[in-house]
Request: fold
Amino acid sequence: MFSARRKALGLASALAVLAVLGSGCTPGPQGKTSGSTDGGTASATPSAPVTETARDGRTVLPTGESVACGLLGDDAIKSTLGPVATSLQPAQPDAERTPEGVLYDSCIHAFDPDGATTNALTVQIITYPSEQEASRADPYSLLPAAEDVAGLKHPAKYSMIPLSGSTEFVLVSVDGPRVVKFIAALPQSGAWDVAKGRESMTRLAQASGL
Reply:
């Protein structure tokens, strides 16, 4: 494979040289490139961040625009959650905007090298075009037996959700058009009880500045 690639590159280089000789052109002075200045420094225009549009109209935003990954640093997560975050992995950002103008900004902090969301902390910020639209979306609707959470700057609720292979501990905070969700998913063998989950998620929210 590598021999064929070298031959292809050698042929391309030879054709390029013949094209220059056949046109009667001579290469420019060394250190000069197309678009370079008199000082010999090539001018470069920084490229704009690339966005992608899905078939359903969602716009996938550059990962550098994610705010969710900045809410909690690795040290804050480890010191707050203790043993479950010992093998914390690098943050994985994901952000997209719907055709209706709703921004979903998520960050996954996996607790093991597999990076599975069934053993991870997910931080999600949902920003609606207006407070009215956020209210209509009912941010607490998917929280069974939700409990009010005190000690935060904005209204928040907490819920523990048992699943087939894991348990999710969810805290949702609402500030006008901005909804912030903290979802800690743990394997059944290492899951907290309701009280421990509430304490841990509340401390996470406080560490993030909510």
About this structure: The first strand starts at residue 52 and ends at 53.
